[in-house]
Amino acid sequence: DGIGLGSTWHSLLFLDRHRKPIGRILTWANTEAAPTAYRYREDEELKLWFYRKTGCMVHSIYPVWKYIHARQNRYQELDPEGHLSSQAEYIFERMTGEVAVSTSIASGTGFMNIHTLEWDQEILDFAGLKKSQLSPIYDFEHTAPLREEAARELGLKPGTPVVLPGPDGALNQVGAGALGEGVMTMSVGTSGAIRLASEVPLLPPQPSTWCYYAAEGKRLAGAAISGAGNCVEWFVNKANLGNTDYRMLDEMAADIDREGAPVFLPFLYGERCPGWDDGRTGGFFDVKAHHGIGDLHYSILEGILFNLYQCYIALTQVGGTPREIRISGGIENSPLWLHMAADIFQREISTSKIEHASTMGAVVAALKVVGAIEDMNAFQPEPGETIVPDEKLGKLYEARFERYMEWYRKTGGE
Q: Which residues of 333-369 are buried (b: 16+ CB within 10 A; e: fewer)?
C-alpha cells in the first residue's frame, strides 16, 4: 500500500546543474571539514548565532559546514549552478522523480531554521547558497508515486505511494512510541544518542545538546556521540585481530575487577556531544600490566555509556528528567552492556520486542499515510524486558565516572 523509507541524518551529496552526482555521499562520519568548522567555532558570537537559529552546532558533521569547506577548498570540482542533496533525498528522487526533503532531514543540515521550519535565508547568504539549490521542504506525510523504472528494479507496483524518508534518530523516536512528553529514547548502535520530544525548541544558553524536528509538530532535543558500537568493532577487528567473538568478550569482561579497570574515552571518531570537538581523539588510560582483553573490552563498553551519561546530564538540564527511558540498538544483544547502562544511569531502562526501532518508525510513517493509523504516536511497540539498576553498583560507577571525567578534562574537555 505504501513505501516507508529510513535514512541517516547529516549526509551531503553534491549534484551538478543536471542533478547528476559529483562524487560520493558524505555521511555524518566524514569529518574532513573539521579544520573549517573549528576555525568558525572559535568565533563565539557566530557560534551562538548559528546554534540559536538552527539547533545545530558549528561542527563538521553538519552539511552546511561540509559545503562551506568544499567551497573554500575544492570549489573547482563543484558546479556553481549545481544542487545539494543527501542520501535520503537522492534515493527518493530516483524512486519517484520528485525533488523533496522532509522537515526532519532538513533540520539536521544546519541550513534550516528550527523555529520557522524553513530554509534560513541569513544562513544561506552566509554559506553562499541559493534557496533554489536546495530541495523544497515537506512534512513526513508528503508522498510521490513510485516511477516505472524504480518499480521494475524493486519488483513493486508502479504508482505505489513513496513516503518522504525520515532520519534514523527521529524514526527511532517514532518506532519506540516516544513522541509523547517525558519518554527518552536511548539508541546504542554504530553511534549512540539520547532524545526527548518537545512541543517547542529546547536550546540551552551554551551549545551542548542539539535540537531538530521529529514529526507531527514535535521538536527533538537530544545529544549524540560518534563512538559506540564502532569502537567495539574497532577493538575486535583491529586491536584484538578478530580473535574473540562478542559473546566471549562479554563473558571475559563480566569477570574482571571493575573498580580497577582502565578508563576508555570513546572518541576514536571525534567528539559530538557534549564537547563538540571533531578533532578529539580517544584511547585507554590507567592501563596496567595485569590488564587483559576482558578488562579492555569492559572499559570500552563503560566509556561509551559514560559519554552518553555526560549527554544525559546536559539534556536533563534543558529538557527535564524523563519518566521513562526506552533503549534500542545493538546494545540489546549484550545483557552485560544493558545492565551496565541501567547501573550507570541508575534508572530502569526498558527494551521492546522490536529489534530495529528506526526501521519501524519508517513503517509507522507509511501506516499513517495510507490511513491505517491516525497519528504516529498511536503506535506503541510491544514492551520487552525492563532492566532494574543495582544500587550497590551505582556507588562504584559514580566513582568510576569521576575518573572518566578527570581524563576527559585532562585531554581537552570542559
A: ebebbbbbbbbbbebebbbbebebbbbbbbbbbbbbb
